Amino acid sequence: METLINDTYLNKSIDKILGCATLALYGEDIRFSVLLTIRDVRDYLANVKAGDPAFNQRVFRNSLTALANSTHPSMPDYRKTLEYAATLMTVELGE
After folding, report:
1. Is residue 32 in a domain?
2. Chain mean position to CA 79
């Protein structure tokens, strides 16, 4: 799995998404929070982070997908949150 290394902003963004996934386990509607986090990540990857933005977005999406795939089957809402975040990395967000 490709990972994002030594990028504090992206690590914090993944932590936010994981926090949302945890809230989803308790029935919270986290879609808007995840959407905002992904919007900010996409903006960061396009305008701040060095390198090819499309490549960086694929790496970030693949990281989210890997996290979703490693989620225990007893936590489907947690997994769905990570999958939702990964799908948002491939969708235009009205830029």
Report:
1. yes
2. 12
* Ranges of the chain with pLDDT below 70: 1-5, 91-95
Establish if 75 belongs to a structural domain.
yes
75 CB contacts (<8 Å, ≥6 apart)?
Answer: 25
3-class SS at 72? coil
Residue whose tokens read 């060095």: 50
Is residue 9 classed exposed, middle or buried when 0-12, 13-18 and 19+ CB atoms within 10 A define those classes?
middle
CA distance 63 to 83: 11
Phi, psi torsion values for 17, nearest 5 degrees = -65, -40
Residue 58: Cβ within 10 Å count: 14
pTM exceeds cut of 0.85: yes
Is 1 domain-assigned? no
